[in-house]
């Protein structure tokens, strides 16, 4: 480190989440962190800090510093709401029943198509603010409620515009293969042609997506159709993520892992063979306990097997109007522990280091380490175990995005 840095935070405990440091949190007690530009340049025990001057010194008052939280799977830009489906499901109809009757995703498609970009932007703002207020500094936003060229582009442009106006990193994912739009009823293969030949190339031309996702499920697209979307994404140099095995075992996970997908998401119904394929390919698991909870699922993802195989396990909100209308990543950490059996440290890794893996950004984010971006949250707590335990009141005292102070 040079003798001068931009920002020096002292008198903090750091949950670095760096797996090369001892302990589940890679904790450094009584630490100091130096930042120059948008990067961490030094982190370690305060007593080992080299002589340095800083433009700004912050006394962390013995609080805990963590990497900024990463919500790696959201559908945050959409029109309308689906409160009436909640009542129907409480009355006994299943998520699939509602979807097959033209509700579900297609009901949000109608509302999203009818909304202007301006309306979508304003509807998305409170959701984004809710995530940011809990320490989120990076999130992913998927399209998938447009399902035609203009409306997919509209959703993705709104996501990019949010990133221009809020102090947060936003990665966008094209999920045009989310559901079959009504105008293609009975012609799923033709819709996949449209996705591969028109929607994805147009999205790439406008640089509107960082990745491509698809819903591989009996009520959505087949493994073969998803394979075609993956090939198209590959040709356009975009990484791939797959909504897989949420409602049934379909072979989606194995296919995605073999194709080198960054992540497979939901995965309640994966098999031992799928876990082995993920470990082999380095594909991350994205666990979505809020959708499991909302849909009152009973089958949990095989966390013990994923852990034993060394598969990175991310946790995310899946924030969407149908299967998880819950804008709280901290609640998801709590559910990840209580419903899926993660430890509190695994839950924090799930919204930092492993979430960065699932987004393909682990070389820049997700861990507090020299050379990585200074996206950080400072928490008034005595132990990082509180993050997965306490919901509602524990908020970050300070947040930093690329070394810049942002209002939490
Ligand atoms: O991740 N599984 C597919 N897509 C979303 C749900 C979208 C919706 O119901 O609107 C999910 O759960
Ligand atoms: Fe989703």
Structure commentary:
The chain is α/β, with parallel strands linked by helices and 408 residues long. It has two domains: 4-67 and 367-406, Urease, subunit C, domain 1; 69-359, Alpha-Beta Barrel (TIM Barrel). 36% of the residues lie in helices and 23% in strands. It has 15 helices and 16 strands. The strands form two sheets. Strands 1, 2, 3, 4, 5, 14, 15 and 16 form an eight-stranded mixed sheet that branches. Strands 6-7-8-9-10-11-12-13 form an eight-stranded parallel sheet, sandwiched between helices. Strand 11, helix 9 and strand 12 form a beta-alpha-beta unit. Helix 8 (252-258) packs parallel to helix 9 (272-281). It is globular. It binds N-(iminomethyl)-L-glutamic acid and fe (iii) ion.
Brief write-up:
With 408 residues, the protein is of the alpha/beta class.
- CATH class bucket of the largest domain: Alpha Beta
Q: Using the CA coordinates, give the radius of gyration.
A: 21 Å
Number of helices: 15
CATH superfamily of the largest domain: Metal-dependent hydrolases
Shape: globular
The secondary structure category is alpha/beta
Number of strands: 16
From the N-terminal CA to the C-terminal CA, the straight-line distance is: 29 Å
What is the count of distinct domains? 2
Mean pLDDT: 97
Q: Low-confidence runs (pLDDT<50, min 5 residues)?
A: none
Ligand identities: N-(iminomethyl)-L-glutamic acid, fe (iii) ion
Helix content: 25-40%
What's the main sheet like? Answer: 8 strands, mixed
What is the CATH architecture term of the largest domain? Alpha-Beta Barrel
Percent in strands = 15-25%
CATH topology of the largest domain: TIM Barrel
């Amino acid at each position: 480190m040079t003798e001068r840095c931009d920002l020096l935070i002292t008198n903090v405990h750091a949950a670095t989440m760096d797996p090369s440091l001892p302990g589940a949190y890679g904790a450094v007690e009584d630490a100091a962190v130096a930042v120059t530009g948008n990067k961490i340049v030094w982190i370690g025990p305060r007593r080992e800090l080299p002589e340095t001057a800083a433009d700004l010194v912050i006394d962390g008052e013995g609080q805990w510093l963590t990497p900024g939280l990463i919500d790696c799977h959201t559908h945050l830009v959409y029109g309308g709401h689906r409160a009436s489906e909640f009542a129907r499901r409480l009355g006994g109809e299943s998520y699939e029943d509602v979807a097959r009757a033209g509700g579900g995703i297609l009901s949000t498609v109608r509302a999203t198509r009818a909304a202007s970009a301006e309306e979508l932007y304003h509807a998305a703002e409170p959701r984004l603010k809710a995530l940011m207020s809990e320490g989120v500094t990076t999130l992913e936003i998927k399209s998938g409620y447009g399902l035609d060229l203009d409306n997919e582009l509209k959703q993705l442009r709104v996501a990019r515009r949010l990133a221009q106006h809020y102090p947060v990193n936003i990665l966008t994912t094209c999920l045009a293969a989310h559901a079959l739009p009504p105008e293609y009823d009975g012609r799923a293969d033709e819709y996949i042609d449209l996705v591969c030949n028109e929607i994805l190339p147009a999205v790439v031309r406008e640089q509107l997506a960082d990745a491509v996702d698809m819903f591989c499920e009996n009520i959505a697209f087949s493994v073969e159709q998803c394979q075609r979307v993956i090939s198209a994404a590959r040709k356009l140099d975009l990484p791939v993520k797959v909504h897989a095995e949420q409602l049934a075992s379909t072979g989606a996970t194995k296919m995605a892992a073999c194709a080198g997908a960054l992540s497979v998401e939901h995965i309640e119904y994966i098999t031992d063979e799928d876990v082995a394929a993920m470990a082999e390919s380095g594909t991350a698991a994205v666990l979505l306990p809020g959708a499991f909870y909302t849909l009152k699922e009973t089958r949990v993802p095989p966390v013990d097997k994923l852990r034993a195989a060394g598969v990175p396990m991310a946790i995310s909100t899946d924030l969407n109007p149908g299967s998880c209308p819950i804008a709280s990543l901290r609640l998801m950490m709590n559910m990840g522990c209580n419903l899926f059996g993660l430890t509190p440290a695994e839950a924090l890794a799930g919204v930092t280091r492993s979430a960065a893996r699932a987004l393909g950004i682990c070389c820049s984010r997700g861990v507090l380490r020299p050379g990585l971006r200074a996206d950080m949250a400072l928490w008034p707590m005595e132990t990082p175990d509180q993050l997965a335990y306490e919901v509602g009141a524990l908020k970050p005292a300070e947040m930093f995005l690329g070394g810049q102070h942002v209002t939490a």
